[in-house]
Amino acid sequence: IGTLFLKTWLALFLSLAFKAAVLIQQWYRRYVARLEMRRRCTWRIFQSIEYACEQDQIKLHNFFSYLMDHFTPSSSKERDFISRMFISGESFKEAELEKYCDYESMEVPDSYTGPRLSFPLLPDHATALLEAFKQKQQLHARYVLNLLHETRKHLKQLPNISHVSTCYSEEVTVCGDLHGQLDDLFFIFYKNGLPSPSKSYVFNGDFVDRGKQSLEILIILFTFLLIYPKEVHLNRGNHEDHMVNLRYGFAKEVMQKYKVHGKKILKMIQNVFCWLPLATLIDQKVLIIHGGISDTTDLDMLQKIQRNKFISVLRGKKRKESNKDVEIQEINGESKVEAESSESESDLSLSPQPRPAPSITNRLEFSKWLRQTVQEQIEWCRQLVDSESEPEEPTYSSVVSLTELDAQCWTHQEEWKQILDILWSDPMPQEGCRVNTVRGGGCYFGPDVTDKILEKYNLQFLIRSHECKHEGYEFCHNRKVLTIFSASNYYEIGSNRGAYYQASKTAHTLTMTQRISRVEESAFRALREKLFAHTSALISAFKAYDKDNTGKISLSSWAMAVESVLHLGLPWRMLRPQLVRSTVDGMLEYKSWLDDLAMEQRSQEHIQSSLLEVIYRNRSNLETIFRIIDRDHSGLISFEEFRQTWKLFSTHMNIELTDDGIDDLVRSIDFNKDGNIDFNEFLEAFRLFDATKYVQGGNTSKKQSQTSETVLGGGLF
Amino acid sequence: MASRKDGAVAEIEKKIIEAFEVFDHECNKTVDVREIGSIVRSLGCFPTEAELHELLAKVEEEEPTGYINLEKFLPVMTKVLLDRSYQPIPEDVLLHAFEALDENKCGYITKEELIKYLTEEGEPFTEEEMEDMLSTALDPETNTVRYRDYISMMIVDET
């Protein structure tokens, strides 16, 4: 009986244990699922904000390009002003470049303890550089310039498409975007080995921007390129472009690290980037490009064009004049690229940017004039079509001659599109090929496009980068396309793994929860900033849902209103608990919610709040414009130029601003009485978000290791 | 009022669609069948694995393709939320569950015991799941799980 009793009791206990276990497991699985959802939402937030930024960037440059073609300066002053904006990107003539970026006269002081380079470079130089950079040393400007000169000389000899054969090299390793994250490059070398005659490397673009050691990465890559020219191959990425560098941090990094010679270095780099090859082909079977392809990708054309003409891919517009033929084309982020096929020479393609009806009463002379000019241009073009005669008015861009007219049979426009597609496109799951409206350049290409291009050129496989992936890599299109992304922790610590990254499990210091929380914090901070920047628009949107003027709206209305203003395509209902903390009877008091948002963003009291909001929302665009205007990178622009810039900008971006508003703004900034504005100070005032971001958890020098497996070993894919 | 109720249903549907789309990588209104658990749970439900399989049976195609369509998922999930199926597990119930496994009622469970229960009993954890839970729950000095503290910490994290 005793044993029976014991058995029963045991059975009872066991079934209790069973139930208890189920409960705990049930609860825990739910917890994990919530975490996963939070992680994906965070990811979506970062992506949508980033892509929105990139689109802004492209819009901005489309705007300038448009101006370039339609602007007839009414005074020499205006002409100078605009010319300064657009000539800055021009490539110097060879001799001028050598003279401007001369390094031979630079003295290297004895006190300099960093590496000293001599050419031709040897493997020892590479190791010395790696060591030096690990010790956080800086290479002397003289050697930087020397290296850049030699790199340029070397790259000039290379074809647009590099060929690699696995007969000669046992292993070919492909690395994706590095984005200035030197630690990742070190890690790849550590795990995979340095480049050598038996170890080939292909670096697939986007070496710079965002991370803080872009220049060091360039130096290392160029050094290895020169030491092992047969084994090291570099592809150009969309960030190997000085216009993009102005916005995304590389230009700033160089100027900060090299206060005296920074401008020269940037100029040289500009001229090195345009000589980077566009693609790499392994064994004639595997094509490696940075972005992607489109249904019009033509490898023959890509082989033959003069790639160095495209200093910046963002300024592809140009007039082509040959005989009677004039083509005016325009890339508008919203509309499809029209390359209308024409049989006859005198065909004209025109897609003018639709102008919004001017409803703002405070229109400046400039915008009125702009509208007039557009009308004139349209008229003029219509006349052309009718009369097939030469244009009588020389427009501004024909006065300011850009690069030489090409003698090829393709138009500059067509060539430019080929490159744009290669550098900016993304794959998509659906079939077809459509304009990449999110990035504002390149295409989305479907599996059918991949099949078509692979078949056309007898290829097996496509490797590309350009998109950050959770796991550092991703296959798609029936495993015919591989995306490789090498910069780990791209958005924030813990956000993604880079390919080739492996850490031992014992080094796991942060739990999954902690990692996700940190990244999440950062994402939501960015999101709240964006919400704040759109306060006025949000109030209007909320009021539309609050017909009875109760001051409250339902959470459902909140979600719809927010999406209609921000257009980020985010799952707002999922995100709501993190964004809206208090509700009354399921309703939100929107005014106080917005007030809370504002309080979070510390603000300067003496600047009008609406102006602050406008500037805040556009501050990174402003910075780009200012840097373009400040051609000599001196950090100073005159007051008049500032006003001109602001007017240009506000006109195009449909921002209403009074002259008084600008004056007030200027008065609140400390500027020396000689009429110059140190715009770094000006921008500093608005770096509220950036400052807080780098204080908390965003310290990329303290990387936490993650448990992840090396996904791709050495060897050919 | 009929319209009010419809409004509530519409709102629930929107929530479900949002959650679904987060996992819809190809943007074609389908998700991998293995993600359904995450979706259902992130909508506030606490199904057991068995209950999840039941649900899956209702939303899968006749010939399982490995993908679930939003079309089929939406009505089923809407009903789940309206009926408030798969209720959350309150803190005290969770506590009792842990206590049930704590034979000696000493306030903690040893690492070995916990592993044994959770990987052999109930709806067993995978090795990965077990390791992950231990990484936060385990007190490395004593190699035990002080479950009261653990629960309090996790509940806070939830918000």
From TrEMBL, chain A:
<feature type="domain" description="EF-hand">
    <location>
        <begin position="657"/>
        <end position="692"/>
    </location>
</feature>
<protein>
    <recommendedName>
        <fullName>Serine/threonine-protein phosphatase with EF-hands</fullName>
        <ecNumber>3.1.3.16</ecNumber>
    </recommendedName>
</protein>
<dbReference type="Pfam" id="PF00149">
    <property type="entry name" value="Metallophos"/>
</dbReference>
<dbReference type="InterPro" id="IPR011992">
    <property type="entry name" value="EF-hand-dom_pair"/>
</dbReference>
<dbReference type="GO" id="GO:0004722">
    <property type="term" value="F:protein serine/threonine phosphatase activity"/>
</dbReference>
<dbReference type="InterPro" id="IPR004843">
    <property type="entry name" value="Calcineurin-like_PHP"/>
</dbReference>
<keyword id="KW-0479">Metal-binding</keyword>
<keyword id="KW-0106">Calcium</keyword>
<dbReference type="InterPro" id="IPR002048">
    <property type="entry name" value="EF_hand_dom"/>
</dbReference>
<dbReference type="GO" id="GO:0005509">
    <property type="term" value="F:calcium ion binding"/>
</dbReference>
<dbReference type="Pfam" id="PF13499">
    <property type="entry name" value="EF-hand_7"/>
</dbReference>
<dbReference type="GO" id="GO:0043409">
    <property type="term" value="P:negative regulation of MAPK cascade"/>
</dbReference>
<dbReference type="GO" id="GO:0051879">
    <property type="term" value="F:Hsp90 protein binding"/>
</dbReference>
<feature type="compositionally biased region" description="Basic and acidic residues">
    <location>
        <begin position="324"/>
        <end position="339"/>
    </location>
</feature>
<dbReference type="InterPro" id="IPR012008">
    <property type="entry name" value="Ser/Thr-Pase_EF-hand_contain"/>
</dbReference>
<feature type="domain" description="EF-hand">
    <location>
        <begin position="617"/>
        <end position="652"/>
    </location>
</feature>
<dbReference type="Pfam" id="PF08321">
    <property type="entry name" value="PPP5"/>
</dbReference>
<dbReference type="InterPro" id="IPR018247">
    <property type="entry name" value="EF_Hand_1_Ca_BS"/>
</dbReference>
<dbReference type="InterPro" id="IPR013235">
    <property type="entry name" value="PPP_dom"/>
</dbReference>
<dbReference type="InterPro" id="IPR006186">
    <property type="entry name" value="Ser/Thr-sp_prot-phosphatase"/>
</dbReference>
<dbReference type="GO" id="GO:0050906">
    <property type="term" value="P:detection of stimulus involved in sensory perception"/>
</dbReference>
<keyword id="KW-0378">Hydrolase</keyword>
TrEMBL record, chain B:
<feature type="domain" description="EF-hand">
    <location>
        <begin position="11"/>
        <end position="46"/>
    </location>
</feature>
<dbReference type="GO" id="GO:0097228">
    <property type="term" value="C:sperm principal piece"/>
</dbReference>
<protein>
    <submittedName>
        <fullName>EF-hand calcium binding domain 2</fullName>
    </submittedName>
</protein>
<keyword id="KW-0677">Repeat</keyword>
<dbReference type="InterPro" id="IPR002048">
    <property type="entry name" value="EF_hand_dom"/>
</dbReference>
<dbReference type="GO" id="GO:0005509">
    <property type="term" value="F:calcium ion binding"/>
</dbReference>
<feature type="domain" description="EF-hand">
    <location>
        <begin position="89"/>
        <end position="124"/>
    </location>
</feature>
<dbReference type="InterPro" id="IPR011992">
    <property type="entry name" value="EF-hand-dom_pair"/>
</dbReference>
<dbReference type="Pfam" id="PF13499">
    <property type="entry name" value="EF-hand_7"/>
</dbReference>
